[in-house]
Structures are given as structure tokens and as C-alpha cells.
Write a structure and sequence with these properties.
heterotetramer, A alpha/beta, B alpha+beta, C alpha/beta, D mainly alpha, B: alpha+beta, MetI-like fold, Jelly Rolls, 2 domains, four-stranded antiparallel beta sheet, 8 strands, about 55% helix, elongated, C: alpha/beta, six-stranded mixed beta sheet, 9 helices, about 35% helix, globular, MetI-like_sf (chain B), transmembrane helix (chain B)
Chain lengths: ~280, ~400, ~260, ~325
């Protein structure tokens, strides 16, 4: 039986608001999921649906109000700080905003190699830099000049996101959490990145892929969970979520997503205006 | 870094610093010494006034010619300690007359005659109300001052005779109300402005860094208290407080530095706090901490390289403020009178009536000195700010 | 009809000059929705901004942009100002703060009405309420400030402001970036229905080809400053000519799991 | 409008807090003088009866907390006791001087603010032209030239060399008769001091406003204003300048303490009959009640202007009425 990498059991998170008059909001309500090795899960939801908070709870960056998370078999709330660090070293995390995810003063290659140097020390520096260079090449950043330019000046939004992905993959994580990793890419590079990630998943890496695009979810993961205002409103294989959505919100998501194929059937454009959905 | 060394402000600062260090050794006249009558004008001004000069006769020089194209001097003074082989007389030959100033006997003679002594006036049979200097130096032309033997044999003389003529002009920048040489005062003033300016700002920046980091990192209660304190200190007039403290506590240089820094750290504290807040929440720092990177590593590898340029720019821009504050307090006469500073010079110029004499050469040097130092540090600050974000460079140029 | 004939735009910077658009030609007839699709940096926004001559000062524009028989490029400043918003209105990007933060939404609309149309005050007030309703916003939002509105509401207010002087042409520059999918759908629908109802011409610029395919009558695909493909959505999907479009369509269809 | 009220109450509370801190600072400042407080508060030259009466007035024999409360009451009611130097009540001294200081600072501040703002805007509109160079240079001047140096020079040139303006004093002695004559005489005395403050001040304003305006003009809503076919003048003044007002007020706020501190120096150089100069004389003359009161008044003036600018900020910037504005 392949071992479970991650279990989340009834995880809830409450943000008290600074202003006493207004009560706080529940970012997450009773989210449960199980992720086995080599499996990938898509989290589908809009901004404010709690997807980013869930990733941060899983990594132990914030404490959940109730429920617990087991990472590689250890409960992150009760384990020691040192073992939590060890757990995190087996995970990779690609944050949503590409601008805050990279140290601006380092060069691109340093930024990618840095996690390896922190974990394995400077003596394995050559190893780190060759791994970093290889990763950057696979993600389409090949120009030598770019590798040594400072992150702050040399990179476009799309390149910066790919460097962040490389930085998360350098430690050969057994669990990769990525929050809309292809939001800044255009169509062609988007599928390339997903192929790179899928290849890693086939080699045994588990992945949680956050997106608002159901088609992207199907391409990146076999299983999907739809989040609405912190609650899981539907969970199924990504194929059935697309073809036979149950929950009203999932239906609206599918209807709202423009596709080329639906656009070219003559009638689709006329009935576009009728199936209104108000959340 | 190299481009900094080619910057005009850096080179000028270096030159001024070296000048102020070498000053005590190189200057012929010490700043506190009274060298000429008060309010004498600089040499290159009012050429008709005679410069203050000192004519000496000694063993082998018994005669000195003085070219005198000027108006008469204000005061004269004769002093000497000599031994003579032959009785002779101290003589001043004017183009038309000849005056015997003093009779010298054989052997040891010591004398100290001032132009206003009555006995001296009678010996030269002038009226007691006569002005000796304008009588003696009434015409323009060639004067000779010599020791003339009573009989023909040339005398041998040991020791020196000095003939002080107090005129209206002196040195490069004239003299102040106490007759001290303004140029050497000006050079000595550099030291105070530089020391106070730089050390007060450094101390203030350290305080700012300390409070900024704490309120940035700690957040919550400490943050609100510190920031409320900063708001309050920024909303009250600081000079009156400095005046009171300086008047009663801070007579010395270092007390003044302490007081100045106590009330100028708020700006840096705010910038450092903003910087720490933005860095603390950025996800890559969180990620590094998550991977177990030691805090020292994070501080050294990430926080410092990012905050340093901003901090340096902050310091460079803070120095003019400190220099002006010190100058202000000394101008108000609240600083230690023994310490020579540009502010003090301006204070004395103002309160001892540089105006009634129109002595603009007393005002310009210290004032322009302060301005120059401030401009230098402003330029250095601008240069450092341009290192932080290059578009700033563009913004000023276009 | 707006006709863009052999338009070229170069950005002149001290270090180098960049060719953003290279003799592109496109026409936007009244009553039709024309899509302009391209990746970021393909020059699509520059092309749109060239029409009302809103490009920054360090740009050189050659070619012609005809509004019926008027060449906009050679118009004097004040005639250009009469055309702006009266004939051609602009709908800004979703992420842009297109409203002056210290003025209410109502003030923006009134301002445009007073400058372009001689209307008595009560008629102006009525018209403001009408365009807001048309754009799908309650009239009470007129005295709200921009920062009090959500992304979707701000875009609806932008549409209302654009409709104020009932222009003949609308230029929408990626109107739904930074909006979530459902709000994007609603905004695009409002825009499409209004264009059809009022028989306006709409130039719809986006990087999202499927979105353009949903509502546009004709689509032009831009790649590195040149229009490489023109045609109806069906032609673009069924037989694309340019290599770039082929690749783009193939990737999108693959993603949608539709191998044709 | 309710949020506006709550915003204003927060601002007034803030100012009262600052006032309280000033009072504490003032109270301890003079009690921490070197030497024992009783001696410092009571001038030895005073006769025994005056000493007894004064020590009762200041409650010097009572515990510190009582002294502080008494001190608070006195300060609030502006009853500052007697000046050691003049023997008259400190309030009388200050009452005659306060209007001079306010007219000096008020007119200087308004003139340099308006001149600076207008120049800053023109410099931002006409980039690269000579007006921008002037603004850049005048900015550097106002940050580097010591005020007293410039003022001394002005005095030397326009009062000594070319006797256009009076050399010293707020009013010529003997004062002319007739209201208008006195008014013009007073203004004639103020021209040089106010002129010097404007000369020193407008550069800083111009530079700040120019940098702010350049940033605002590059905003999207300005481009949208042009897209709406609005005339350039309308965009500059109704959109760009309106957005500029809140940060402009913040600059005003931050510059206030400096300007009021500057009053001391200006009044000393021009020997004007003002609170600043009185403070200096009180300090050098060891006249503590007057020194304390003058400092208190100057601080009060700053707090009052601060509050006024803060309340104005609430009107000018709608965004501020909602969340607490962290300055």
C-alpha cells in the first residue's frame, strides 16, 4: 500500500478581525483530505476561497484553529520545532505572488540554489549550482546572462515565476505545494510547466496544485476539490468535475470558463446570454 | 563603490577632513591668539589701510626700510631686550623728518613703550592729546627704522627690538571682535561641525535602527507605543527643547551630540520599521525560516544588504540637519564659548556688532562653510539613494 | 468605421528604440465586436492606445487611423479632444486604478457630460443614473468613492462612464484582468450585449483567445508587433495560417481535451 | 458622516495626548536642572516675602505629584506666575509677543507654501525646462543654507549697505501715531524677516510638490482623464492637484515643528518682539517660569496647527475616513 504523505482532518482556521465591532471570518471550515505518494490533487477556487491559507496550514506556517494535519506521518501541531523543520525540508512551496517569493538582492542561480545550501551546507556548493542550472534549463530559462543577473532587475513576471518553481524543486521535494504557479505564463509555456510537474509526479512526487481554471486542474491533477469561502463544496476526479459538476458553484465555474471548442459551435454564442448564475 | 570615489562631494569632503586634521599643526597662528586689532579687514580689502605688521631688529640687522603707501596706523608699540656695545638711539626716519624714539645706553637695555604713553609723547614733544601713530606716519613714502650710534662707530647688538604697528588689515580673512585671526578660526570650526554632524547622525541612526527593528519585528503593543512616541516627538518643536538642554546640561561637545541625537532618530526609526515590516511578511523570508535557516543567516544575507543602502542614504541626508542644529544652538549663544565653531563665530559676529562695521568678511566664511558641508552630504545622500533604485537616477535627469 | 492602415509604433528610450507595432492594419466596423489577441508584449495594448492618441510622448507613430473620413493622427489637439469619449471611449484594464481616488464615481460621469454635451443639470443627473443602470450598477454607487468598490463594480462603473456620451466606438483594453472568472464572465456579457444593443463598434483586446472567441465576430491575432492572423473564430480555430496561431490553438485544445 | 466624526474624535484625542506629553516634558525639564529645584525655581535675588509667596504659588514644599497637578492647573489656565527678569506676570509678557510670532510664522508659512506649491507644479508640468532646474536648486538651498546666515546677509545688504529696511525691532521707536501708520510700520519691519523665511522655505516645498506631482501625473487616472477628452488645465487642477492635497498636507504637518522652532532664530536675528526671542532671553537669563511658559506656548501652537491640518486632511482625503490613518 503506498504510504500516505499528507492527511488533513477537519482543519478549520478563524481570523479574528482587528476591529472589535466586526467579528472575524472563517478562512477554512472542516477541510479533510488524504494524499498518497505519487498522487496529485487540484484545489479549485477563486481568490478568498481559503486555498492559500490551506497550503500555509499544511506547511505549519500558521496554526489551524481546530483539526490536525499529518505530514509524512507526523502531526505538525505536536511535533517538535526541529522535526517540523525536517518535514518542511521534504516539501516545496511556490507562493502565489511571484514578486514576494524570491530574494531580490541575489542572482537568479543563487536564489534557486539557496535552499540546497541551507540544508546541505556550502561544501556541496558545486552540486547545488549544477542542480539549479539544470532545473532552470528544464523550465525554459537558459540564457547564461539571465542566470547571473539580479532577481530584482533582470526578470519578467513569467520568468520570475519559473525561477520560483525551480527554487521549490531544488530540494527534490516529496510533496510540492504550488499556488497558481502558471498565472503569469502565456498559453504555450503554461502546458510546458505542467508537463515538467507531471513528470515529477510520475517519478513519485505528490503535488497540490491550486488554480481557478478547471481545465488546468484536469491537466495538472487527477483528483480535484472545489473550495468556496473556506468550505469544500465538491470533491471528485477532475474529469467528472468538468463533465458532470454537481454543486451549483462548480457548474457556474464550468459555465464561466470560455473554451475554444464551445466557442466554435454556432449556437453556443447565442445561448451565452441565458444561463446566468448569481452566486 | 568606485563611482563614489570619483564623486565631487566625496573628494571635497576628504579634502576638508584632512584640512581640519592637519590644521592644529600647520597653522602659523593659533585660533585663540589675539594677533591684530579687532575688526581688521582682510588684506585684499581697503588697501589704503596699513596692515598690522611687526618689524624686528636683531644682531646683524640694525636697519629696516619700510615702504609706507598707507594711511597712518591705529596704534604702535615698541619693545625690546638688547645689550649694546656703544650708546646709540632708536631712530625712525620719515621721508621729511627724523624722530629719535628711544635712547639706548651701553650694556643691557630693556624697554616696552606704547604709543599712548604720556612720557613717550613728551619726549617727542607732542601734545598729550596728539595721536602718536598718525604723527609719526603722517606721510606716504619710504621710512627707515634703525639703531643709530651716537658716535660714528657701528654698534654690536645682541637681543631683538620689535616695533609693532597695529594697522586696519590682517591676514586672509581679517580679525574678529577679539582680534583673533578669522581664517584660523574658520579652519578650526570645521572640526566641530564635522564631528557633531556625523556623530550625532550616526548615534541617531543607531537609535532609529534599534527602535525601528524592534517595532517592526515585535509588532503588537511595543509597535504602537514606539510609533505613538515617534508621532509625538515629531509633532513638537525640537529646537526649544534643545535650547533648554544645551543651556543647562550640554555645555560640552559630546553632551551636545547626545542631545541632538536624542531628538533626531525618529525619521530613521520609521523607515527601518517600514523596511522590516515589508521584509518580515515577504514569503521568501518565511520560506527560509521554514527551512530552518538561522536568524543570523537571514539577517546577514538578506536583511542587511537590503536595508544598508537605505540606512546609509538616511545617515547622509541626516548630517545636514545635525550640522544646522549645532550651528543654530551655537548661534543662539548656548554652546560652550571655549569651543570654536562656525555657529559660535556667527553668534559673535551678530552680537558684537559686525553690522555696525559692515564686516561681511566675518559672516561669509562660517556661513558658506556650513552650507558647503550640507551640500556635500546632500549630494552623498542623493548618490546613495540612486544606488537603491536606479530609476531615481532617471527621475532627476529627465 | 475605424480603419487602421499600416500602423507602426516605436518606443524611443535613451539606450535603444523598440518596435512595438509593425505596419498593422485592422478595421472596426460599427455594430461589430473585433477581438485583438496576443501575449503580453505583443503590442496589442500599444495598438489600442494609438487610436485615441494616448501613447506616451517617447513614441513615434506612422501610418493612418481613419475615423470614417477623419485621420485621427493629423488632428489638432482640441478637435481630438472633442472626438475623445464623444466618438471613441476607453474601458481600462481591470487592475488599473482608472478613477481619481478623491472624486466620487458620479463626479467622473458628470464631468464628461458637462464637457461633451450641453445638458441642463437635472438632465445630467438623470443620464448618470441611466448609464449606471445600463452598466448593471445601482444609482446609489454614484456618490461612492473608487476605493469603496470591488474590482467587478469598478469595471461596471468604467463601462457606465464610457457610455455617458453614447460613443460610436468602445476600446476595451483587457477589461477583465485581475477579476475572478465569474465576475469576468458577467462583465464581458454586459459589454457584449451593450455593444450590440447600441450598435457600437467594440475593439476587445485580451491575451485570452477562448474569451475573445466567445464574444467576437472577428479576431486578429498579434505576435511580436505584427497581425499574423485575421478571421472569424471558426476560421482561426479550424485552419490557422500562421505557425504561432497553430501552436496556440493546439495547446488550448489539448488543454480542453478536445483533439480535433 | 458618522465616520468623519469618529475620525475627528480620534485626531483630537491624539492631540490631547501630545499636549499631555509636552506638559510632562516641560514639568520635568525645569525640575531636572542641575542644582536643587527649589533654588532654581526661586531666584536668590528675590526678597524673602516674594520667595515665600512664590514657593506657595509653585507649591514647592508639597510632594511632587501635588506640584504636578498644581502645575497642570496653572498651565491650562495660562497663569504662569512671575518672570524673574521683568517682575511682570509671564502671561503679560507673552500676550504682547504671541501675535507677533503668529503673524511672522503664519505669513511666512503661507507665502512659501503657495509659492512653493505653484512652482513645484509648474516644474512637474514643464519637465526639463529652466523652471525645473530652479526648483531642483532652490530645494537644495533650503535644505543646506543655515537660516541665520542668510538672514544676517540680508540684514547686511538691505538694512546696512542699502538702508531699505529697519535694522532691528518689530516697531520703530518712537512708534508712529495712527492705526494705519503703525500698521504699515509694523509691516515694514516684517518684510525682511518674512522674506528671508520664504526665501529659505519655498525651495523645500517646491521640490516636494514637484516629486509628488511627477508621480501623480504618471498615474492611470490621469491618462484616463486625457482619454475622456478633458482639457489639460482641468485635469491638472481638478484631478492631479486634488490627489496631491492629502500628501501636501502631510508635508505641512511634518514641516510645522521645524518652522516654529525657526521662529527663535529669526526673531533673534531681527530682534523681533516675539515668543521665540523671549524664550532665548529667559533661558540665558535663568528665568525659568518664562522659559517654561514660552516653550509651552510654542508647543501649543504646533499642536494646534497640527490638529487643524489633521482635521483638514479628513475632509480632503475621503479614504482616510474609513480605516485608521497610520501617519
Amino acid at each position: 500500500m503506498t504510504n500516505t504523505i499528507l492527511t488533513a482532518n477537519k482543519v478549520s482556521l478563524f481570523y479574528p478581525s482587528r476591529d472589535p465591532k466586526m467579528e472575524g471570518i472563517w478562512a477554512l471550515k472542516d477541510i479533510s483530505l488524504i494524499l498518497k505518494q505519487g498522487e496529485s490533487l487540484a484545489l479549485i477556487g477563486e481568490s478568498g476561497s481559503g486555498k492559500t491559507s490551506l497550503l500555509r496550514v499544511i506547511l505549519g506556517l500558521i496554526q489551524s484553529t481546530s483539526g490536525y494535519v499529518e505530514l509524512f506521518g507526523e502531526n505538525i501541531n505536536t511535533c517538535t520545532h526541529h522535526s517540523l523543520i525536517e518535514l518542511r525540508r521534504k516539501c516545496g512551496y511556490v507562493p502565489q505572488d511571484p514578486y514576494g517569493s524570491l530574494p531580490p538582492t541575489l542572482s537568479v542561480i543563487d536564489a534557486v540554489a539557496e535552499p540546497w545550501l541551507i540544508v546541505y551546507g556550502r561544501k556541496s556548493r558545486l552540486d547545488a549550482y549544477s542542480k539549479a542550472r539544470h532545473l532552470l534549463h528544464t523550465l525554459g530559462i537558459t540564457e547564461e546572462r539571465l542566470l547571473f543577473s539580479q532577481v530584482r532587475f533582470g526578470l519578467s513576471g513569467g520568468q520570475r515565476q519559473r525561477v520560483a518553481i525551480a527554487r521549490a524543486l531544488i530540494l527534490e521535494p516529496r510533496l510540492l505545494l504550488c499556488d497558481e504557479p502558471t498565472s503569469m505564463q502565456d498559453a504555450s509555456t503554461r502546458s510546458e510547466i505542467i508537463e515538467v510537474l507531471n513528470k515529477r509526479v510520475k517519478e513519485g512526487m505528490s503535488m497540490i496544485f491550486v488554480t481557478h481554471d478547471l481545465y488546468l486542474a484536469r491537466a495538472a491533477a487527477s483528483h480535484g476539490m472545489v473550495l468556496l469561502k473556506g468550505e469544500c463544496c465538491e470533491e471528485n476526479s477532475t474529469k467528472t468535475l468538468l463533465t458532470a459538476p454537481q454543486h451549483n458553484y462548480t457548474k457556474a465555474l464550468v459555465a464561466a470558463l470560455p473554451t475554444l471548442s464551445s466557442a466554435i459551435q454556432r449556437d453556443s454564442r447565442t445561448n451565452l446570454l441565458h444561463n446566468q448564475y448569481t452566486p | 563603490m568606485m563611482s563614489l570615489f570619483r564623486r565631487w562631494s566625496f573628494l571635497l569632503l576628504l579634502f576638508i577632513a584632512v584640512l581640519s586634521i592637519l590644521a592644529p599643526f600647520s597653522l602659523s597662528v593659533s585660533p585663540n591668539q589675539e594677533v591684530a586689532p579687532p575688526f581688521s579687514t582682510p588684506l585684499w580689502l581697503k588697501r589704503n589701510l596699513p596692515p598690522t605688521m611687526k618689524i624686528t631688529l636683531s644682531e646683524n640687522i640694525l636697519k629696516k626700510n619700510i615702504a609706507w603707501p598707507y594711511n597712518p596706523p591705529t596704534q604702535i608699540h615698541l619693545s625690546g631686550e638688547i645689550t649694546l656695545s656703544v650708546p646709540s638711539a632708536l631712530v625712525l626716519e620719515t621721508p621729511t623728518q627724523k624722530f629719535v624714539l628711544h635712547h639706548l645706553t651701553v650694556g643691557k637695555n630693556t624697554f616696552d613703550i606704547d604709543g599712548r604713553d604720556l612720557s613717550f609723547k613728551q619726549r617727542l614733544n607732542f601734545s598729550p592729546f596728539a595721536q602718536i601713530p598718525s604723527e609719526l606716519f603722517s606721510e606716504k613714502g619710504e621710512y627707515i627704522f634703525r639703531v643709530e650710534p651716537d658716535f660714528s662707530a657701528p654698534p654690536e647688538m645682541r637681543g631683538t627690538i620689535t616695533f609693532d604697528i597695529k594697522g586696519g588689515r590682517w591676514g586672509l580673512l581679517g580679525t574678529d571682535q577679539r582680534g583673533r585671526d578669522i581664517f584660523s578660526l574658520f579652519i578650526a570650526g570645521i572640526r566641530v561641525s564635522l564631528i557633531v554632524g556625523i556623530s550625532a547622525t550616526l548615534l541617531a541612526s543607531l537609535l532609529g535602527l534599534f527602535f525601528g527593528l524592534i517595532s517592526g519585528y515585535a509588532g503588537g503593543w511595543t509597535d504602537t507605543i514606539i510609533m505613538r512616541g515617534v508621532d509625538i516627538l515629531l509633532s513638537i518643536p525640537i529646537l526649544p527643547i534643545l535650547m533648554v538642554l544645551a543651556a543647562y546640561w550640554g555645555k560640552g561637545l559630546w553632551q551636545l551630540v547626545l542631545i541632538l541625537s536624542l531628538f533626531s532618530w525618529m525619521g530613521t526609526a520609521r523607515t527601518v520599521r517600514a523596511m522590516t515590516l515589508s521584509l518580515r511578511d515577504s514569503s521568501y523570508i518565511e520560506g527560509l525560516r521554514g527551512l530552518g535557516a538561522p536568524t543570523f543567516y537571514i539577517l546577514w544575507r538578506h536583511l542587511l544588504p537590503e536595508t544598508l543602502p537605505l540606512l546609509l542614504a538616511n545617515i547622509a541626508l541626516g548630517v545636514p540637519g545635525a550640522i544646522l542644529a549645532e550651528a543654530g544652538i551655537s548661534f543662539l549663544g548656548l554652546s560652550d564659548p571655549r569651543i570654536i565653531s562656525w555657529g559660535r563665530m556667527l553668534h559673535e559676529a551678530h552680537s558684537f556688532g559686525a553690522f555696525t562695521r559692515g564686516a561681511w568678511w566675518m559672516l561669509l566664511p562660517p556661513g558658506l562653510g556650513i552650507t558647503l558641508l550640507c551640500l556635500i552630504f546632500l549630494d552623498l545622500g542623493k548618490f546613495l539613494e540612486e544606488q537603491i533604485d536606479p530609476q531615481l537616477k532617471g527621475a532627476l535627469k529627465q | 468605421m475605424i480603419q487602421i492602415i499600416d500602423l507602426s509604433i516605436t518606443y524611443i528610450t535613451p539606450s535603444k528604440s523598440v518596435f512595438a507595432v509593425n505596419n498593422a492594419s485592422l478595421s472596426i466596423p460599427k455594430g461589430e465586436i473585433i477581438g485583438l489577441v496576443g501575449e503580453s508584449g505583443s503590442g496589442k495594448s500599444s495598438l489600442l492606445m494609438a487610436i485615441p492618441r494616448l501613447l506616451p510622448s517617447n513614441t513615434e507613430v506612422s501610418g493612418a487611423i481613419l475615423l470614417d473620413d477623419l485621420d485621427i493622427l493629423s488632428l489638432k489637439k482640441d478637435t481630438l479632444n472633442t472626438i475623445r469619449w464623444k466618438e471613441i471611449a476607453l474601458i481600462p484594464q481591470g487592475a488599473m486604478n482608472s478613477f481619481t481616488p478623491v472624486l466620487t464615481i458620479g463626479k467622473h460621469i458628470e464631468e464628461v457630460l458637462t464637457f461633451h454635451m450641453e445638458l441642463p443639470p437635472h438632465a445630467i443627473k438623470q443620464r448618470c443614473e441611466r448609464v449606471m443602470k445600463e452598466a448593471g450598477l445601482d444609482a446609489s454607487y454614484l456618490n461612492r468613492y473608487p476605493h469603496e468598490l470591488s474590482g467587478g463594480q469598478k469595471q461596471r462603473a468604467a463601462i457606465a462612464t464610457a457610455l455617458a456620451c453614447n460613443p460610436t466606438f468602445l476600446l476595451a483594453d483587457e477589461p477583465t484582468t485581475a477579476l475572478d472568472v465569474i465576475t469576468q464572465r458577467e462583465i464581458v456579457e454586459t459589454l457584449a450585449t451593450l455593444t450590440k444593443e447600441k450598435d457600437m463598434g467594440l475593439l476587445f483586446v485580451t491575451h485570452d483567445l477562448p474569451l475573445a472567441a466567445q464574444i467576437c465576430d472577428k479576431i486578429a491575432v498579434m505576435h511580436e508587433g505584427e497581425i499574423v492572423e485575421k478571421g472569424s473564430p471558426e476560421e482561426i480555430v479550424k485552419n490557422p495560417h500562421h505557425e504561432h496561431t497553430k501552436q496556440l490553438v493546439k495547446a488550448l485544445l489539448h488543454l480542453e481535451g478536445e483533439e480535433i | 458622516m458618522t465616520e468623519m466624526k469618529s475620525y475627528w474624535w480620534r485626531r483630537i484625542a491624539g492631540s490631547l495626548l501630545v499636549l499631555f506629553v509636552v506638559l510632562i516634558l516641560n514639568f520635568f525639564l525645569f525640575r531636572l536642572m542641575p542644582g536643587d529645584p527649589v533654588a532654581t525655581m526661586l531666584d536668590p535675588r528675590f526678597s524673602p516675602e516674594a520667595k515665600a509667596e512664590l514657593s506657595k504659588l509653585y507649591g514647592l514644599d508639597k510632594p511632587l505629584s501635588f506640584q504636578f497637578l498644581l502645575y497642570l492647573k496653572q498651565m491650562i489656565t495660562f497663569n504662569f506666575g512671575y518672570s524673574f527678569l521683568t517682575g511682570r506676570t509671564v502671561w503679560e509678557e507673552l500676550a504682547t509677543r504671541l501675535p507677533n510670532t503668529i503673524t511672522l510664522l503664519g505669513s511666512a508659512l503661507l507665502l512659501s507654501a503657495f509659492l512653493g506649491t505653484w512652482l513645484g507644479i509648474q516644474a512637474a508640468l514643464k519637465r526639463g525646462k529652466w523652471i525645473e532646474k530652479i526648483v531642483l536648486w532652490s530645494g537644495a538651498v533650503s535644505f543646506s543654507f543655515p537660516s541665520f546666515f542668510v538672514q544676517l546677509l540680508l540684514l547686511l545688504i538691505f538694512a546696512y549697505a542699502i538702508p531699505l529696511f529697519p535694522l532691528r525691532g518689530s516697531v520703530s521707536v518712537p512708534p508712529p501715531i495712527g492705526f494705519w501708520a503703525q500698521l504699515t510700520d509694523h509691516i515694514w519691519h516684517l518684510i525682511l524677516p518674512v522674506g528671508s523665511l520664504v526665501l529659505l522655505g519655498f525651495g523645500g516645498w517646491a521640490l516636494y510638490v514637484r516629486n509628488l506631482m511627477v508621480k501623480v501625473l504618471s498615474e492611470d487616472f490621469i491618462l484616463m482623464g486625457e482619454a475622456r477628452g478633458l482639457p489639460e488645465k482641468h485635469i491638472v487642477w481638478n484631478h492631479a492637484f486634488r490627489t496631491l492635497l492629502p500628501p501636501l498636507l502631510t508635508i505641512f504637518l511634518l514641516s510645522l515643528p521645524g518652522i516654529i522652532s525657526g521662529a527663535v532664530i529669526t526673531e533673534t536675528v531681527f530682534s523681533l518682539h516675539g515668543v521665540g526671542r523671549f524664550l532665548l532671553e529667559a533661558i540665558t537669563g535663568q528665568d525659568y517660569p518664562s522659559a517654561g511658559a514660552s516653550f509651552y506656548l510654542l508647543a501649543l501652537l504646533t499642536i494646534f496647527c497640527n490638529l487643524a491640518a489633521d482635521l483638514l486632511y479628513g475632509i480632503v482625503d475621503p479614504r482616510v475616513r474609513f480605516e485608521r490613518r497610520g501617519r
